[in-house]
Amino acid sequence: MVLLVLLLSACGGPSASTGTSARNGEIEVQTAWARPVTVGDAAAATDAAEHGAHSGQGDTASGTVVSGSTQGSGVTGAAYMTIVNTGSAADQLVKVTTEIADQVELHTTTIENNVAQMRPVTVVDVPANGQVELKPGSYHVMLIGVKQTLAPGDTVPLTLTFQNAGEVQVTAEVRES
Amino acid sequence: MVVLAAALLAACGGAPSTTSSSSTRETSAAAPSGEPRNVVEPPKQLVDFEMPSNTGETVKLSDFRGKPVLLFFGYTHCPDYCPTTLGEFKQIKKQLGEQGDDVAYVFVSVDGERDTPEVLNRYVTTFDPSFVGLQGTSANLQPIAKDYGLYAKKNTEAGSAAGYLVDHTVVTYLIDKQGQLRVFYPFGVQPSTIANDVETMLKEEA
Fold this sequence. Notes:
- The complex is a heterodimer.
- Chain A has helices spanning about 1-10, 40-50, and strands spanning about 20-25, 25-35, 75-85, 90-95, 100-110, 115-120, 125, 130-135, 140-145, 155-160, 165-175.
- Chain A is globular, with a radius of gyration of 18 Å.
- By secondary structure, chain A is mostly beta strands.
- In chain A, strands 1, 2, 3, 4, 5, 6, 7, 8, 9, 10 and 11 form an 11-stranded mixed beta sheet that branches.
- Chain B contains 4 helices and 11 strands, in the order βββββαβαβαββββα.
- Chain B has helices spanning about 80-95, 115-125, 140-150, 190-200; strands at about 5, 40-45, 50, 60, 70-75, 105-110, 130-135, 150-155, 165-170, 170-175, 180-185.
- In chain B, strands 2-11-10-5-6-7 form a 6-stranded mixed beta sheet.
- In chain B, helix 1 (about 80-95) crosses helix 4.
- Chains A and B meet through helix 1, strand 3, strand 5, strand 6 and strand 9 of A and helix 1, helix 2 and strand 9 of B.
C-alpha cells in the first residue's frame, strides 16, 4: 500500500486523494504526508537550550570522534503534498509554518551527474487550473529542528500561506518513506 | 570543511552504455530490463576503510566480507533522497525475506561534522535496526572517494536555517562478498531490480 502510494506520487499523475485534504477557495491541498523522524533526548535538549553547545556526549566507550557542535539545526524532516488550483489565476505558496519544528523552509532538489543538490526556494508556483506536486526528488517542505519524534500514524499540523488564497490548514500524515 | 571531489561515476570504468529513460519511476510493475543499472566489469576491488559506526564501534568495509553490501552516501539533514533510498533498502530487505538478514545495508555520512554515531543511530534505526550508519569525515572519505566516484561538497551559501547543505553523490553501490564493487545504480532504480541482483549475488560463493 505504501509502495503503491509512493509509486503513484512519483509518477507525476494526479494523486488519488486518499488522505486528508484541505481547501481555501480555489486552492486544495491533497494527500499531505511527512516522513518519520526520530528525535533523541540530546536533540530535544539542544533545541530547548536554543542551539546551546552540544556537550556531554563522551559516553561512547570506543572513544570515537564526536564533533563539538550540532550547528544548532537539530533533526530535519520533510513533508509532501499535492496542491491543486481550480482558479483561473496562478497562485504561489509563500510560507509554511508548524508548531512541531523550529523552522520551516521550502526546498527543491535536483540531480545532475548523479549528484543531488538541495536548495531553498522562496516560493512554489501553483499554476492556474493546474497543480504542483511536492514530492521526493522535487519540491518539499523542509522541517528544521523537529521537536518531537514523528512515527507512522502521527499527524503534523501545517499552516500553508498562499499569495492569493491566504492560509490553508493542512494535516500531514506521517508514513513510511 | 568537507570537500571531496573526484571523477564522477562515468570514471568508474567499464560501465556499459545503458539504454532507456533516466526516469525509471515512470514505469510500474516488475523490473524492466532496460533500467540503467551499471555493471562494473571487471569487478573492482575496493580499498578498505574504517569509520566510527552508529553503535559506537569502529567498522571496516572488510568486516562485511562474506555478505553482499548495499552502500549509500548521504547525510541525515538530507530529507529527501537519503530517506527515500533507505526506505528502498528496507523494501529490498523485505523482498529478500529471510535472506535479507545476510546482506549489509550501509549508510555512509558525508557530514561527519554533524552526523555523530549517536545522530546516525537515531537516523538509521528509524528505518531498520540492522542498518549500519558510518561517520564519514574528510580524512576517512578522501582515500576512498575515487573508488566510488564520490562527490560531496558542503554548501554554506544556500541560505538555509539547516546551517549548511551538502551536495552529494546519490548512487547505490552493490559490493560482493569479496569486497568488490559489482553494480551501481543511479537514484530512482526500482528496489526490485536491486533486490534481484542481490538475490543472485547471495548464491555466489563467499
